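> forwarded from #structure-qc
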């Protein structure tokens, strides 16, 4: 029966540990810091080109002229709403309607509307009537011309102060429901304002 070999002495284990720590520190200082963080305390990274690997790749750019404001602080809190609109049978009273929100220049929202039947849509804005109502059309969609009939989505930034939204007209021989989802910066105000006739159509 052979005698068991004695394990490494504590002194030898300590020597191995210190050697490993020294080697790790050397690798970190000479290779990792210059290559990853462009930190070169010894100058070895500059000589070997490692500091170029760790240099920042960020390039500061500015918006092109005419691009307008990129970041705008909002005076009103962000909100989201779902508007459900029932349009009666096409050709009958109540077969068309308008839904709008109040916005000032620079306010914006994202939107998506969908209908369970074909509708004509006109996305536009209008000012208050004093001194004279101004109407601006953003997009129309006429199914009779092969344009989208049952839904649309996108983003919008108000170019003027006023009401902005949609006119919908039912083209079906049955009632149609339109659902409009909005999220952004706007106010829900009564539309049309008291004493004002809608100008979109």
């Amino acid at each position: 029966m052979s005698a068991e070999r004695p394990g490494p002495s504590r002194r030898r284990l300590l020597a191995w540990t210190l050697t490993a720590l020294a080697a790790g520190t050397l690798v970190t200082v000479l290779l990792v810091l210059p290559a990853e963080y462009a930190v070169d305390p010894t100058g070895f990274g500059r000589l070997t080109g490692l500091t170029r690997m760790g240099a920042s790749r960020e390039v500061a750019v500015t918006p092109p002229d005419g691009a307008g404001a990129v970041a705008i602080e909002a005076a009103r809190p962000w909100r989201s709403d779902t508007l459900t609109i029932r349009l009666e049978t096409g050709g009958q009273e109540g077969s068309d309607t308008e839904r709008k929100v109040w916005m000032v220049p620079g306010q914006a929202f994202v939107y998506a509307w969908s209908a369970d039947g074909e509708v004509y849509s006109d996305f536009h804005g209008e000012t208050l009537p004093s001194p004279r109502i101004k109407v601006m059309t953003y997009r129309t969609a006429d199914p009779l011309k092969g344009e989208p009939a049952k839904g649309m989505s996108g983003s919008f930034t108000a170019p003027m102060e006023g009401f902005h939204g949609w006119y919908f007209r039912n083209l079906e021989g049955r009632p149609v429901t339109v659902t409009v989802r909005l999220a952004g910066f706007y106010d829900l105000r009564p539309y049309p304002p008291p004493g004002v006739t809608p100008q979109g159509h």
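QC bot note: The first helix runs from residue 10 to 37. The two ends are 107 Å apart (CA to CA).
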